[in-house]
Amino acid sequence: MEIIAEPPRRALVVTPHPDDCEGGCGGTLAKWIKESGTEVVVVLCTNGDKGTSDRNMPSSTLAAIREREQQEASDLLGAKGVVYLSHPDGGLEDTMLFRGQLVREMRRHRPDAILCIDPYRSVSHTHRDHRISGQAALDAAFTYAWSYLHFPEQITQEGLAPHRVKDAYLWGSESPDTFVDIHDYLVLKAESLGRHASQMSSNPVEREERVRQGAARQGETAGVAYAEGFRRLRFDIGSAAWQFLNR
User: Fold this and answer.
1) What is the side-by-side order of every strand in the sheet holding 10-15?
2) pLDDT tens figures, 48-61
């Protein structure tokens, strides 16, 4: 088990829907940005256009609302920017198109680490977009982004360069092994979730209490009062391969 003491200088967050990253790693992002100056870019994979029980709400209207809410939540946490891929809610596919979009953002923003949902579960089921976003993010970092032989048009036509991501932090894991102490950031995490007003309870006291309870459960495992937990993957593609392919 590890408590993260040295945050990355740059981080790319791959979130399937608006509000997922705030719930999974909002406290971590707030802490890294405020205390360590981490540059955070959020990649929003879908537009959230199916996230309502209101049958009179047009999908296009909801998408506009939820993308605005994501921008407001990211601004509150201090993120550098939000990238909107705008796939339909429930429509993520593990395609070369989607993987190429994620590779492009990794090459543009050159993160030391990515954060995404853990796509691997054995006990519980999860939303299909969650699984695909997590798997595609890992594949983009480990298989594609570092080699000029993959998506070469991004290099020759867009002026990007291969990029090697060092670590992945997977939130929502059934077996977290790495934690961030978010004691001082519970309120900010709850407030960032509150920016997703189309999805959240309007009662801020109840919302903050749910955040507190969830962080306390993670904190018990980590030996601190309040925490967010991740499964950490270290990407080791081999320094020889990196140097040979990108010399």
Assistant:
1) 2-3, 178-181, 227-234, 167-171, 113-117, 10-15, 39-46, 81-87
2) 889 877 788 788 89
Q: Which residue has the tokens 């601004």?
A: 75
Tell me if 237 sits within 8 A of 164, measured CB to CB.
yes
Work out whether strand 167-171 and strand 227-234 pair parallel, antiparallel, or are unpaired: antiparallel
Residues ≥6 apart with Cβ < 8 Å to 207: 190, 193, 194, 200, 201
Q: Report if pTM > 0.85.
A: yes
Spatial separation of the C-alpha atoms in residues 150 and 121, rounded to whole Å: 29
Report the interhelical angle of 20-36 vs 59-77 (nearest 10°). Answer: 20
Residue closest to 21 by CA, chosen among 33, 3, 37, 4: 33
pLDDT digit string (tens) for 84-99?
999 999 999 999 999 9
Q: Tokens 């081999």 — which residue?
A: 238
Q: Which pair of structure tokens corresponds to residue 190?
A: 């709850």
